[in-house]
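re the bet — no i am not wrong, look at it urself. input seq straight from the record:
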Amino acid sequence: LDLLERAYKERDPNLPYINCQPLWDPLRPEPRFQAILRRMGLPQ
């Protein structure tokens, strides 16, 4: 999650895809993961 936070701050162009990649499924329930989605304006 720290790396996702950093990617968000650095505006990583691949970050919006975390919402549709199964790789991230284990982190979806995490409040920090949800907060990142919310800040990017992505559906939770």
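see?? The mean pLDDT is 94. told u. also The longest helix spans residues 31-40. so pay up
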